[in-house]
Specification:
The structure holds 2 protein chains of 2 kinds. Chain A contains 6 helices and no strands. By secondary structure, chain A is mainly α. In chain A, helix 3 runs antiparallel to helix 4. Chain B is α/β, with parallel strands linked by helices. Classes of the chains: A mainly alpha, B alpha/beta.
Amino acid sequence: MSAPALEAFLARLYTDPALLERFLAAPEATASAAGLPAETCAALSDCDTIGLRLAAESIGRKRSRRCPAAGNTLALRFARWLLAAIGTACRQPGGPP
Amino acid sequence: MRRLNDRVGLGWRPELAAGILGHLDRLDVIEVVAENYLVGAGRSSLRGRSSLQGLCDLARLVPVLLHGVSLGLASTVAVEPRRLVAIARLIERVQPEAWSEHLAFVRGGGIEIGHLAAPPRTPQTIAGCLANLHAAKRVVGSLPALENIATLVRPPCSSLDEAAWITAILEGSGAPLLLDLHNLYANALNFGEAPLTLLGRFPLDRTTMIHLSGGRWIGPPGDRRLLDDHLHEVPEPVFDLLAEVARRVPQPLTVIVERDGDYPQFGRLLAQIEDARAALARGRAGRIGAAA
């Protein structure tokens, strides 16, 4: 079994909804078409399809949120400002350790 | 009686900055996501001087732990050296107490998954992970604590169960365990095992750090799964697992409560931290009682 090739195929399944649907409809054939060896294709045909779909959907939601929202950017700026202010206080004589 | 230095803290998030900095007297330790201070292709460069200075100042006020999310150590593919070098430079600059990473793969075939994924649990991924940990120790100078991850899917093509796979990696590398108790709880429930039974099969003697978080149930009726989304409070059974770990192991534990969104009033997070302290005390009391 080529482990890097299997990891690459799993990465595609988690991130490519069209490939996931093809795989769920015909696991062994789809894995074989991706160039995976017969032993791996047979093992994949017996995989946890409900979990696979849920995992892919969860990852899809995460990926769609990767661009930070405006609120998050503001929070980031505020956090940096707070830390900078505390750092300035720390470096003043008699400030916190 | 030996005094145990258990500690409880919170994961640093920008949205929680004011609450954290206003309540440092209630927090023993802060965990910071390393990648928030790394930029560029492959997260291979450090952020600007002012951002890093803020983190260094925080580390002067309270013990800081660095938590990595993107190395992808649990893979048969070697971690790019530039990623390890960046982590090494960040650690050198910030001087955290310790650092940690996940037992996950996060990319494959040039595709970034964008999330932590459970690799096939096989001898091959154990060997790949050990090689990556060897490289990490060589470049960074220390091993990360390794975190068990939550998974909604039984990792395809696996030949080992989770506990055996993790134990082999920890024993082979000598790395400590960052035990995420909600991840363990979710995996146990999702795949039909009692959480306490799964806990008993984990290498608890290697646990130095613990994560606590919450999640929600998703999926079709009859086959629902618990998603570890870090958007909900730590459920009571997870505090019970924390008490059980404290009862079973002698070493000091550093516990981090994680929250990544849907933030409640900061007082609710402080209450969860106190709940963690109470669970630790409960477990330690049971340990002393058992030994008497």
